Amino acid sequence: MDARQRVALNLRRLRVSKGISQDDLALAANIERSYAGHLERGGKNPTVTTLEKLATALSCDVSALLAPLPDGISIKPLKSGRRSQA
Asked: What pLDDT is recorded for position 1?
């Protein structure tokens, strides 16, 4: 697994475990939502600055985005679609 794919899987794993949507993550990290999606799919290479923004938004250290994934990990998707405004 290359570093970009490792970042992608860790980003998604951390985001889903905290119950944060891609929209909310992008807003908190001050990046475009579509860019967050590209990063989660491993389609784009993030800069160190972007990794710092994402780590801050996820309340974790940058190293968590580069950490080896545990064997047998499964990442459950969040419910799709936008949240309704209450």
From this structure: 75
Give the predicted TM-score (pTM) of the model: 0.81
Phi, psi of 43 (to 5 degrees): -85, -15
CA distance 14 to 6: 12
CA 18 – CA 59 distance, rounded (Å): 10
The whole-number pLDDT of residue 76 equals 60
Q: Please, where are the H alpha helices in the chain?
A: 3-17, 22-29, 33-40, 48-57, 62-66
Contact 18, 57 (CB under 8 A): no
Mean pLDDT by 10 residues, the chain (86 residues): 90 93 96 95 94 97 91 63 55
Report CA Rg, the chain: 12
Residues 6+ apart with CB under 8 A from 50: 29, 31, 39
